[in-house]
Amino acid sequence: MEAASHSEPQVEAAPGQPGRLPAWALGLIPLLLIAVALVLLLTVGGDTLGERRGPPVEDLAVEQTVLRPGQIELTVRNVGPDPVEVGQVFVNDAYVTFATGQEQVSRLGSQTLTLSYPWQEGSPLLVTLLTSSGATVEHEIDAAVATPEADGSFFGLMLLLGTYVGVIPVALGMLFLPFLRQVREHWVRVFMAVTVGLLGFLAVDAYLEGSEIAAESSGAFGGVELIFIGVALAYFALVALDRFLRARRERAKDAGAGAFQLSLLVATGIGLHNLGEGLAIGSAYAIGELALGAFLVFGFALHNTTEGLAIVAPLANQRRPSLARLAALGLIAGGPAILGAFIGASVYNPEVAVFLLGIGIGAIVQVIVQLVPAMRDRTGRALYPASVGGILAGIAVLYVTGLLINV
What we know:
Layout: H1 23-43, E1 60-68, E2 71-78, E3 84-91, E4 94-96, E5 98-100, E6 104-105, E7 110-116, E8 125-131, E9 136-141, H2 152-173, H3 177-182, H4 185-216, H5 225-248, H6 259-286, H7 294-312, H8 323-334, H9 336-346, H10 350-371, H11 385-402
Helix pairs in contact: 2-7, 2-8, 2-9, 4-7, 4-10, 4-11, 5-10, 6-7, 6-8, 6-9, 6-10, 7-8, 7-11
């Protein structure tokens, strides 16, 4: 009698056993193959498609204009797929000579053109660039004004401007803290709702401004999508900061973050918004589009004073904070206006401005998320008549004061 033969079931090797690749290698192999395929497609793939027919696709965008006596300086960027060579330049339909350091502009590259033209102050200018293939690019200057030189006095002016519209108004708004400490808890929650309205208005205003700048930019490195990238980056960065601060506090409020933590987050969000605001002010002044009149500075100052109130509102029911902490909060919120003015006046770039405005929006959204628990009433409602009225009041205040600003 033959012994019965039994087939032993095969046991699959568990992850990590000999004969199996580790998980990281299984994920790395497809990435390497994708990288090799893309490199081959980029280097030799074009040769297999035959000769491309038709004229080259040329697209130039003017990124910056500098006006000096008898001279116009244009910085252009190639936002098309093919190299571009500027053959001729016309200003108000008159041919002008120009100088440049390079003949062709490669994809995403930039070039500076120096035009010799006796422009007159206040007159409109239409600059037409004619490429070697016959394509035209037009750039309009509404009113010719000499570009300020970036010397010591110029940056001193930017320092004063950032201080006037950023630091001083925020500090004055923080003087509401003694008043808030004397009012009832119900009114503190109302002022927290006012803060939410203020910040919400700032977020919407920043989005509209960023969308407008993105529409006017070359789009070489992105447009409106940079706003959302900045929002995501700032939001998650502040979430991490919030968790870090919470971990270091021994006692946290059940309704949300601690008082100083909330004030710090509010100041950070406002500071990032003021960075974008300073960027807009500095760049507008550098190209001669901002008249620094006393009424305009007053409008900016009044508009930003309400931001100081938003910073100290979370501290109303807490023990008196030190002057050093209050000064730090004020600098965090108002100081970036100075930095933004410096950047905007010297190295302004539309894409950077859009990205920074997105960062400001993300910071504000995170701050609003932190503030909502602090405005809840005794029944846990975030939206009730008093809080809704506070939110609407905050929106109305910034809307009315914003009417005084005309950049």
